[in-house]
User: Which sequence fits this backbone?
């Protein structure tokens, strides 16, 4: 992965992110419906196709498609530039011999820094995506649940700001921060370790290396925080005028009380399959763009 104070990281992150959204959004919709409507993957797919056809799998995709470019650009841009700053600082302090331990710490810290900025950008878009993904129109055998009155992404954005102000767009930001910030460091660290330590002397084609490293990085960063994703989805899909959950802790308690421990792993297969595919594509797009810019 290229490290440097250039615009290349931003552009590469933008292109890689768009590729990831196109590949992963249908599985993301099924994941959200499992988490908020209490169904299985098979039932979610069957009902969505039966009552909403292919279009139903892509509900709420407009804003992620628009947001993933800036958010991934910021993430990879902050990541590359934080590492660059840390390297320059070490040189000024005459720390010429960089150990593996120091390099690992830099990669993790830079990933965490990128994660903070990315969440601040993506939370409003994630919120709008989630409420539109749970909008089934009451068709068929979907259980009764709260549905927003908005007809699309732009309508939702304007309606939320009108009804609850700009702060309303950041509903669910706390579980998102806990979910994404620490694991962003794990994400970048896993990718770098696989690409530049495990695969450095491997004869495998570079696209295969990037796919495996990127997909594995995504899985590593998600497998420990699926319960936080469930809570995030439930809070964001809740009725803001008459909420079931008073906050993150209350959502944990009430979800466990109503459905047991297994509720916190709803959508896990969809998450892990989706995150491997998406991040494999993201890193292929990212690295290919950097290579083209050289």
Assistant:
């Amino acid at each position: 992965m290229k490290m440097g104070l250039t615009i290349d990281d931003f552009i590469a992150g933008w292109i890689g992110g768009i590729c990831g959204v196109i590949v992963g959004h249908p599985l993301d919709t099924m994941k959200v419906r499992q988490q908020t409507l209490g169904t299985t993957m098979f039932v979610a797919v069957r009902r969505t196709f039966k009552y909403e056809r292919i279009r139903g799998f892509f509900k709420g995709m407009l804003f992620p498609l628009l947001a993933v470019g800036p958010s991934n650009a910021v993430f990879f841009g902050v990541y590359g530039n934080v590492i660059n700053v840390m390297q320059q600082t070490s040189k000024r302090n005459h720390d010429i011999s960089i150990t593996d331990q120091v390099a690992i710490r830099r990669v993790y810290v830079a990933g965490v820094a990128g994660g903070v900025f990315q969440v601040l950008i993506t939370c409003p878009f994630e919120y709008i995506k989630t409420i539109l993904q749970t909008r089934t129109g009451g068709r068929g055998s979907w259980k009764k649940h709260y549905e927003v009155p908005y007809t699309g992404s732009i309508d939702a954005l304007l309606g939320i700001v009108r009804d609850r102000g700009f702060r309303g767009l950041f509903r669910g930001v706390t579980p998102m921060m806990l979910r994404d910030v620490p694991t962003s460091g794990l994400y970048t660290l896993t990718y770098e370790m696989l690409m530049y330590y495990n695969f450095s002397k491997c004869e495998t084609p570079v696209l295969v290396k990037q796919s495996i490293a990127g997909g594995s990085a995504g899985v590593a960063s998600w497998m420990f925080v699926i319960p936080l994703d469930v809570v995030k989805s439930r809070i964001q899909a809740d009725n803001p005028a008459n909420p079931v959950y008073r906050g993150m802790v209350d959502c944990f308690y009430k979800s466990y009380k109503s459905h047991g421990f297994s509720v916190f792993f709803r959508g896990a297969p969809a998450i892990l399959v989706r995150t491997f595919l998406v991040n494999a594509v993201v890193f292929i797009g990212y690295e290919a763009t950097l290579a083209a810019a050289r």
